[in-house]
Design brief:
Strand content: 5-15%
Oligomer: single chain
Number of helices: 14
Radius of gyration: 19 Å
Length: 368
Amino acid sequence: MIASLLQRSLNGELLSRAELAALLAADTPEEMAELRAAAYEVKRRTVGTRVYLRGLIELSNRCTRDCLYCGIRRSNREVERFELSLEEITAAAALAADFGYGSVVLQSGERRDTKFTDFIARAVEAVRALPGIVGLTLSCGEQSSEVYRRWRNAGATRYLLRIESSNPELFSAIHPPNIDYHARVEALYRLRECDFQVGTGVMIGLPDQSCDDLAGDIEFFRKLDIDMIGMGPWLPHHAAPLRDRGPETPERARRRLELSLRMIAATRLQLRDVNIASTTALQAIDQEHGRELGLLFGANVVMPNTGGVEHRKDYTLYDNKPSLDENAVETRDALERSIGAVGETIAYHQDGTPLHYLKRKHPSAEAN
């Protein structure tokens, strides 16, 4: 049923929103296999089968936002708040460099106070001064152009700011009234103006979310000329008010995992040369194969945690986060085995700049 759509996509044609929605609804085992094969072929042709690693450093769970889905939301009194020191951040980044990851991600809750923005600038400068670090991603929420520009000048090269849903009504349903959809979109445009490699993403399987909504998300990525996509299944957190209609069950989780894999595949087919992360949320549902399935459906980036385990349990955006007690060495060893097992190779000591970004900046460039 979807064979003609996949063939057109393999031929380089853009699909309509309705056609993307049809791919996202194709849930039989046979259709899933066809979709996976087509997405992997496009991935092989465009970005190759090397997996880029980003050493993830969760530096603080203090947050001024109260998003309805999030485990570190401001009003959650169960979580113990923490902030890493500059020394702890640089130690985790140095470990990523020793492992050959080449690139790190500094992630935090969302704050806009001067103490915080100054600290992030110092952290970026300190990490970029380390030998072996050639790429640095920030994920620290909405900021002013001045702050973004300061962080870019300090040495950050990429920025991930997830929209969570590009449907304004659905966005409003999962955020409190003081979080404005249009402000989020404007922040993404500001990041582009500051010459970041811009990333965004969505949650998949939200209550009341349709395949048409997700197809609209892919169109949103294309409209904003996004370079990197980080998305995965929505997973409930017991201390967050957003709830599904009915109890969480393995079957519900499995359906969200499969829909997420179809979303990765459809995004690869439509956007082709962007970087797509195989996120931890996939692994939360399928501990053994979730991350690897993401790669097989078109993802090409994995973000192993290189921070210590002492604060890992306090940075849980959803319940059942995997690898809470797995140290960075164990994570690296497991990644090497699992990525090799699906026939892919790790691109050690590489920046992994999205080919999409390189083409925009230098039309004749290839991925490094």
